[in-house]
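Exercise 3.2. Students should predict the tertiary structure of the chain below and write it as structure tokens, then compare their answer with the key that follows.

Predict this chain's 3D structure.
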Amino acid sequence: MLLENKNAVVYGAGGAIGAAVASAFAREGARVFLAGRTRVTLDKVASEISALGGIAEVAEVDALDEGKVEEHAAAITRKAGGLDISFNAISHGDVHGSPLLEMPFEDFARPISTAVRSKFLTFRAAARQMATRRSGIIMTITATTARQAIPEIGGTGVAFDAVESLCRQWACELGPLGIRVVWLQTTGIPEALHDPGGIQPAYGTSHPMTSGELIAWMRDKTMLRRLTTLADVGNMAALIASDHAAAMTAAGMNITNGAVPTR
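Answer key:
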């Protein structure tokens, strides 16, 4: 197994992406600590992992609460003997479907401030625990909107661009301590839609779409004519977290199916 004897924390583990990553980590042998704000969803993910023979523990942690994040990371080290992997899958509160000309500043700024704060706090807490053993990897997720100029997505693209820049900054400072920082760059993920059967906000177009229309629109922008799946995210996260990717840091793993070619 790729992550045998590793200890991993996943923030936002109750959401679709966090749950997929946590399950993949557990499948590959990691002991997984599930962190999030909603106990019931965390318990559900933990039960699913346990049913497949994995090890998962749950804690209610708000990734925007500096004190709680630090306390939780330290508690993992005390209990498990160390922290090897940290993955942040916290959502940002994005607002789509409105041009910037009509958007309140608070709606534009929310995903940016939420993304930067949650990443900074969870990265720092994990790094402080990893530094004592001079090893570890810190990970998160971004999307094609960090590289594409798409109308009517509010602060989403700016938030993801900021996250990638933040990752590079952390990587250059943590590298001498043996800690890697990597992000996964994805397309939109249909399985993570909040309302799979509903009408989605206008997303770079002049009119709202059904979920099916939105998925087709995103899919047609890829070279492989497919979108990133939750399985893709989990599998790649497990691989990059493993020692097989020990030389990778300050980098984004492109799993956009060619939507954003890497130069």
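Discussion points: The chain has one domain: 7-195+227-255. The helical segments are 16-27, 39-51, 66-80, 105-130, 156-174, 211-219, 230-241.
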